[in-house]
Amino acid sequence: MISKMHLIKIAPLLSAMFVVVSGKGFPEISEFVVDEDRLSVRERNPCVPLKGSPLCMPKVNFGTGSSTHSLSNVSKLTSIWLDEVDGFGVDTAFNYFDEKQVGKGIANSAKSREEVFLTTKVGCDGYESSSEQALDNRKQLNLEYVDLLLIHNRHNCSGIDRLNGTWGTLVDEYKAKHARTVGVSNFNYTDFFRS
């Protein structure tokens, strides 16, 4: 349940997103909130330590795969998220087709690369295809590594060989230090045991 205080704290962010989505420009977050009420996303939503890893994954990320904003706004929205909202998690994917804009938004941000937790994803398309996607992810983002590389979802995992091949890509990306950690997204426990 959302408390009144919680709503007061997030309302400026919701208002800012509405104005951006409606095409009225990019308001300054300061237009909506006074200094004593300002808490950064990092302060309100700390990260979750990843077991067996020195990484801490943010609880709240800016997800770029959405029909609510145009591709031309992704770079600006990424920078706003990182700088004005003080967010630090950014989530994109190969099939969002916005990684170049996300990379520009990170580069244009006042935050260093080390201050940003970047998640991207590949399809469950087997070793060769997912390896090409992972390489293209980094090229489009113009980054040496991502923090979290995921298999996007169980769709297209039509058999254990395809899943194993895609997982092999993630392992190779991790070993090559192109991904700091790896995992799956939108999977059920039983998905790992179907043939």
From TrEMBL:
Coiled coil: none
Domain NADP-dependent oxidoreductase as annotated: residue spans: 90-188
Gene3D superfamilies reported for this sequence: NADP-dependent oxidoreductase domain
PROSITE patterns (UniProt xref): ALDOKETO_REDUCTASE_2 (PS00062)
Signal peptide (from-to): 1-23
Keyword Transmembrane belongs to the record: no
PANTHER family attached to this UniProt entry: ALDO/KETO REDUCTASE
Name of this chain's protein: NADP-dependent oxidoreductase domain-containing protein
Lineage of producing organism: Eukaryota, Sar, Stramenopiles, Bigyra, Labyrinthulomycetes
